[in-house]
Amino acid sequence: MRERRAVWIVARHEYGRMVRRKAFLLMTFGLPLLYLVIFAFIIFFIARGSGMPLGYVDLAGVIPASPQMPEMFGREPPPVAFPDVESGQEAVRNGEVVGLYVLPSDYLRSGEVVLYVGERSPSEEEQSFFAEFIRCNLVSGVKDEAVRRRLLDGPRYVTRTVETGRLSGGVHVVGLAVAIGAAVVFYLLLMLSSNYLLQAVADEKANRTIEMLFTSISPRALIVGKGLGLTAVALTQLLSWGMMVVLGFLYFALRPGSSITLDPSLIPWGDLGIAFLFFLPSYLLLAAMMIALGAVSEDARQGQQLSAFLSLSFYAPLFFITQIITDPGGALAVGLSFFPTTAFLVLMIRRVMGVVPWWQVALSWVVLTASAAGMLIVAARFFRVWMLRYGSGLSLRKVREWLRGGRHA
């Protein structure tokens, strides 16, 4: 009970110490805000429309005299019809319309549309608007609303696997986005947090305060508390970035003219749940490895050099990404699913590219969690022996002795 309370005190102290650092605040809140500013610039200065209408000349006779406007593009001004190409081009020169679309007489056969532009071209949003404008008026003569809606929206493909009936198809794309997002976030945290994970014990080692800490707390409680506190720091960063992504997604999905649908059935809840369950022990394993490395390193510079080699074990899936994608059920992909440092990302990719048996998911998580717990125990042993031997050299013989219990170190 006393050790559990000590773990909680250390975790809370480590979390508070890290979140007050300027570097943490910059990366947790400054980085998302930077991306928000960039996206806002793209939306309001590049992707947004000019506010001027589009012009068109219908030589094919497919757009009625009183055309229908697409429901999803309510903010766009209605296109202006011109009787001939010359008058439309003159309007472009005078800045009355942002561009002139000409539907030739053989449009229904060829599908070709000529666009005349002046000083600037229609934005992507304006081009999407005009494409929807044409589709809307092409089907305006269809009386059956269900048929008309299906012609406008097209088919929605839903594919299920033969073995389990697991939904893929539309979920496949979103699941791929989840896997890529999980990889990007994990590797970003790996790059950003390696330094302060090493510093988690380097500071105490350098100023010798560890000798005073050992009089009131056990090495295991100290290491476990530090590991949990640093994992909570990573979750705080993850939550901040995740909220920014969700807000950005909702903004684009709720905009008039957006092709993004808020359909909960398309969200891969299983993949999201597995990503969360695997992220926690994966990051805890990383934290324990970095803390152990910081304990045995003579100084921060040596620890940073050694951490580069240690990080390669987490980057290993990138070296075999082609084999994993082309053969997600092969021996290499399955084997990497059970290796602690590669299990998280490989399993996410395999679930997107194929069906992963649930026993493999469960066994992989058990191996990963046990490895994280075991690494905490190893880090505690390193911590107990090496932190009181400041300035000693590192050797393989001493490492073997520490792993056996540190009694002959």
Radius of gyration: 29 Å
Structural class: mainly alpha
Question: What's the count of strands?
Answer: 4
* Strand residue content: under 5%
Order of helices and strands: HHEEHEHEHHHHHHHHHHHH
What is the CA–CA distance across the termini? Answer: 30 Å
Q: Give the overall pLDDT as a whole number.
A: 78
The portion of residues assigned to helices is 55-70%
Q: Biggest β-sheet, characterized?
A: 4 strands, mixed
Arrangement of strands in the largest sheet: 2-1-3-4
Number of domains: 2
Shape: elongated
Low-confidence stretches: 167-171
| Helical stretch tally | 16
Question: What does this molecule look like?
Answer:
The protein is mainly alpha-helical and about 400 residues long. It has two domains: about 15-40 and about 160-405, no CATH class; about 55-155, no CATH class. It is about 65% helix and about 5% strand. The chain is built from 16 helices and four strands. The protein has helices at about 1-20, 20-45, 85-95, 105-110, 125-140, 145-155, 170-205, 210-215, 220-255, 270-295, 300-320, 320-325, 330-335, 340-355, 360-385, 395-405, and strands at about 55-60, 80, 100-105, 115. The chain has a four-stranded mixed β-sheet with strand order 2-1-3-4, covered by helices on one side. It is elongated.
What are the main properties of this structure?
mainly alpha
